[in-house]
């Protein structure tokens, strides 16, 4: 990409990698707390309703984070006005995150107000910041219009209770997740075209990789804190080891050749905005959700490693890696236009464990799911080395 500047607060693009700044890393700390709150919420409410509520809150947290990552892909985080905006989003993010445990109880309105404040406030600021670039300005005005509509539902839900709140918030998140696919079409303002979005692929790839590190870090914190409070019997030690190896395997799979190659592929795409939208805005939520669910399963296994695996433990141990691998499959398809045979085979192996799960202990099931992840990681590493050997040959 040639050197460009679309306005006073936009990044200068000189063709190189736009590095992730320290303030962006500082900003992410709020979302470390958010991931912790979400995983603890799922541990405390393992019912179907609890899963639905936690999933909805995760979708909101992810949307607040990924929209900010897109904004800092365009705006320069080292400019004071942008830094002030990020600090204000962090402050509202702390309020939102502290409200997560009781978002469907007494702090629903507070959660909704903080979330809507983040989304609408940041988008209005960005529209003002890029006012010299008519295309980007229109884009963010359209985004703001959609967020205002969903914001009405968020706040209305915060004033309601129980099923009515859940229904309102589900409608709000559905509107927001549909909006990028609809091009943010707005009466009088038209539709945004991804071909007009100037995306620095390496920056967005690094931002999402760092969020994945946050999720993996939370999984390590959960297993470490749980194991620290237990007597170190052989089965507890084995449960901890299995969970730890599973985290390493997920890191191995994610940070294989794919993570770095994706930014290169996006930068050479005819429509980098479309590829980045599918790969990072949408698909990338699944690996994060998978890591969180797997961490919850690890906590339960360390507490109850023997006996028969009950449905909630089985669902977490199998569902977490399954979501993680599914996200990887969709990511590769979006970026490289290929289906991943290794991750597809891993998903099939996990599905085959479903009928086995009631017959084995939580520890054995944990070892089996960890084994699947390790095999997928080994398969991908061997495939990468083989392709490299073929190219050198």
TrEMBL record:
Q: Which UniProt keywords apply?
A: Membrane, Transmembrane, Transmembrane helix
Read off the InterPro entries from this record. Answer: Low_temperature_requirement_A
**Transmembrane intervals:** 21-43, 55-72, 84-104, 110-128, 140-160, 166-187, 208-232, 238-257, 278-297, 313-331, 338-357
The record ties this protein, via Pfam families, to:
LtrA
Whether Disulfide bond counts among this entry's keywords is no
* Presence of keyword Transmembrane helix: yes
Identify this protein by name. Low temperature requirement protein A
Native organism: Caulobacter zeae
């Amino acid at each position: 990409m040639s050197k460009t500047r679309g306005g006073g607060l936009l990044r200068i693009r000189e063709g190189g990698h736009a590095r992730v700044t320290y303030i962006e890393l500082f900003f992410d700390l709020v979302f470390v707390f958010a991931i912790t709150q979400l995983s603890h919420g799922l541990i405390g409410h393992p019912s179907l309703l609890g899963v639905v509520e936690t999933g909805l809150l995760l979708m909101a947290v992810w949307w607040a984070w990924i929209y900010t990552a897109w904004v800092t892909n365009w705006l320069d985080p080292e400019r004071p006005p942008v830094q002030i905006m990020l600090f204000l989003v962090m402050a509202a993010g702390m309020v939102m995150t502290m409200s997560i445990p009781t978002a469907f109880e007494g702090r629903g309105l507070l959660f909704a107000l903080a979330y809507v404040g983040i989304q609408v406030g940041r988008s209005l600021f960005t529209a003002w910041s890029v006012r010299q670039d008519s295309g980007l300005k229109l884009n963010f005005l359209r985004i703001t219009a959609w967020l205002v509509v969903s914001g009405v539902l968020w706040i209305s839900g915060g004033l309601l209770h129980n099923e009515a709140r859940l229904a309102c918030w589900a409608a709000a998140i559905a509107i927001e997740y549909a909006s990028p696919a609809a091009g943010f079409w707005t009466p009088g303002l038209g539709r945004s075209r991804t071909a007009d979005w100037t995306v620095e692929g390496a920056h967005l790839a690094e931002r999402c990789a760092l969020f994945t590190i946050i999720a993996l870090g939370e999984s390590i914190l959960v297993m470490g804190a749980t194991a620290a409070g237990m007597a170190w019997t052989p089965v507890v030690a084995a449960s901890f080891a299995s969970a730890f190896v599973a985290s390493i395997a997920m890191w191995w799979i994610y940070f294989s050749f794919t993570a770095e190659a994706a930014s290169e592929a996006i930068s050479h795409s005819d429509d980098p905005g479309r590829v980045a939208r599918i790969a990072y805005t949408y698909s990338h939520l699944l690996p994060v959700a998978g890591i969180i669910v797997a961490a919850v399963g690890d906590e339960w296994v360390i507490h109850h490693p023997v006996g028969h695996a009950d449905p909630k433990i089985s669902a977490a141990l199998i569902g977490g890696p399954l979501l993680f691998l599914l996200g990887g499959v969709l990511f590769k398809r979006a970026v490289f236009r290929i289906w991943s045979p290794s991750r597809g085979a891993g998903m099939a192996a996990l599905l085959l464990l479903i009928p086995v799960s009631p017959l084995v202990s939580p520890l054995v099931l944990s070892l089996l799911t960890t084994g699947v992840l390790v095999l997928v990681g080994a398969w991908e590493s061997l495939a990468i080395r083989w392709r490299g050997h073929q190219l050198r040959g």
